[in-house]
Automatic annotation (TrEMBL):
Residues annotated as domain Lipid/polyisoprenoid-binding YceI-like: 3-173
UniProt cross-references to SMART domains, sorted A to Z: YceI (SM00867)
Database matches in InterPro entries: Lipid/polyisoprenoid-bd_YceI (IPR007372), TTHA0802/YceI-like_sf (IPR036761)
A Pfam family hit: YceI
Record-stated family: Belongs to the UPF0312 family.
Protein name: UPF0312 protein
Length: 176
């Protein structure tokens, strides 16, 4: 069993969505937790839980962040966290995996699959600790979670796309 402790300072969780049919609105979750239970040498047998506080959303625009936390979107006061719990991990190649699990937003749960690249381990020159790294990417349809807010554009189309893309880069300190 490998004990991994998330290094929040060296990790990130970003998202993007189509905006006004012609560009992308981007943001990040500044706080999140990743719990790993398993063995780095046998990742398909591991269990992963990711908890993301909605309050940590940051798009670089306070007004937009407040709107995202409101009832039009996440209803952060009533539903404070997004949660992903893995149900299976499939090895695709030496360092690539597909992680499938239950993603819950506003008490609505759907199965989602994310691509994970395991970047291996390295020794920290600062303290000699072992560091493990993972890159994660994937996308969801926000509307199946009840995140349906939108506005029609005068020029045709809608303000926001349905698809939200996620990209995470996670660094862990490996313990025994």
């Amino acid at each position: 069993m490998t004990n991994l402790t998330l290094d929040q300072v060296h990790s990130s969780l970003n998202f993007q969505i189509k905006h006004m049919m012609v560009s992308k609105a981007k943001g990040e979750f500044e706080t999140f937790d990743v719990e790993f239970s398993g063995d780095l040498n046998d990742l398909p047998s591991a269990q992963v839980t990711v908890t993301i506080p909605v309050s940590s959303i940051n798009t670089g625009n306070e007004q937009r962040d407040g709107h995202l936390r409101s009832g039009d979107f996440f209803e952060a006061e009533q539903y404070p966290n997004l949660v992903f719990r893995s149900t299976s991990i499939k090895k695709v190649s030496d360092d690539e995996f597909e992680v499938t699990g239950d993603f819950t937003i506003k008490e609505v749960t759907h199965q989602e699959t994310f691509t994970v690249e395991y970047n291996g381990t390295s020794k920290s020159p600062m303290d000699g600790s072992t560091i493990a790294g993972f890159d994660v990417s994937g996308k969801i349809d926000r509307e199946v979670y009840g995140l349906t807010y939108n506005a029609a554009l005068e020029t045709g189309g809608v303000l926001l796309g349905k698809e939200v893309k996620f990209e995470g880069n996670f660094e862990f300190v490996v313990g025994e």
